[in-house]
Design a protein that fits this description.
Blueprint: H1 14-44, H2 49-61, H3 67-84, H4 87-100, H5 105-117, H6 121-134, H7 139-177, E1 198-200, H8 212-220, H9 235-242, E2 251-256, H10 262-267, E3 277-282
Helix pairs in contact: 1-2, 2-3, 3-4, 3-5, 4-5, 5-6, 5-7, 6-7, 7-8
GO molecular function, one term: Hsp70 protein binding
InterPro entries: TPR-like_helical_dom_sf (IPR011990), TPR_rpt (IPR019734)
GO biological process, one term: protein folding
Length: 284
């Protein structure tokens, strides 16, 4: 009997051939029945979507239907997966359906829709192009194509804004980091204190020294680039960032003529800076 035949062996008698034909017919009938049950479960609503997927899977596993019929089964399962939000599974099923039958317009539509849901815009655009070649008047595919074009335009505009924001912030940071010289001391607007009498050094190390990348991110807050995952720095800037040193001390060093006492200096209001330590150095 054909039921006892090993896989891959050929029937030797007419009875074995008849048995194999009967088994194939039974499997085909079962596959078609599973397909119809799956369609019925879809019509019954969301509570039965998993049952529909199970039926389509059983129909596929019979492995007796033609490529075009199996393509329909995969496309149907892709449809249910889309309804359930299983977009990756839907895309896989739709792609399998297209492999079996490249002109399956429903499979192409579902592949485009799943790709769009996964934000795979290039893939979605490609599927839309294939669908329009197969069916130039397909309204649903053209609708998805318009959505994709709109999203691609938004993405390009957003990327342009990010690039512009980063470029502008880099200019500001460079102007700060590479500025030359320092302005006059704010308390000596009239330049009464000459270098021969008093020498003041600007406060340094008063807090954590920020890296260029950190300064850039501060400038980018509130812009289109505020959520940028990474900011590319020049090799030179990256090296400078790694060489930053910090100090928590606050100190201003002063050098006065020995003829001026510390009491004189500290009693002169215009020479005092609140909350700063002073270091006195005798001599010039």
């Amino acid at each position: 009997m054909a039921l006892w035949m090993e896989d891959g062996s050929n029937p030797l008698t007419e009875n074995e051939k008849a048995d194999l034909d009967a088994i194939a017919a039974l499997k085909e009938s079962s596959a078609l029945e599973f397909k119809e049950k799956g369609n019925e479960f879809v019509r019954l609503g969301k509570k039965h979507y998993t049952d529909a997927i199970d039926c389509y899977t059983k129909a596929i596993n019979q492995k007796v239907l033609s490529n075009s019929e199996n393509s329909v089964l995969y496309a149907n399962r892709a449809h249910v997966n889309l309804l359930l939000g299983n977009n990756r599974r839907a895309l896989n099923d739709a792609e399998e359906a297209i492999n079996l039958c490249p002109t399956n317009i429903k499979a192409i539509y579902r592949a485009a829709k799943a790709s769009l849901s996964l934000n795979l815009l290039d893939e979605a655009k490609s599927y839309c192009a294939s669908g329009i070649r197969c069916d130039p008047n397909n309204v649903e595919i053209k609708k998805i194509e318009r959505q994709i074009d709109s999203l691609i335009l938004e993405q390009e505009q957003r990327e342009a804004l990010v690039t512009k924001a980063i470029a502008e912030a880099e200019k500001l940071v460079s102007a700060i980091v590479h500025r030359e010289g320092c302005p006059p001391l704010p308390w000596d607007a009239e330049n009464k204190y000459t270098r021969e009498a008093v020498e003041l050094y600007y406060e340094t190390g008063s807090g954590i020294c920020l890296s260029k990348e950190r300064i850039l991110r501060n400038f980018l807050e509130g812009t289109a680039a505020s959520n940028a995952q990474s900011i590319a720095l020049d090799e030179k800037d990256a090296v400078e960032d790694s060489n930053h040193t910090t100090s928590a001390s606050k100190c201003i060093a002063m050098q006065e003529n020995s003829s001026q006492s510390s009491l004189f200096v500290l009693n002169t209001e215009s020479m005092r800076l609140p909350n700063h330590k002073y270091i006195r150095k005798k001599g010039k």
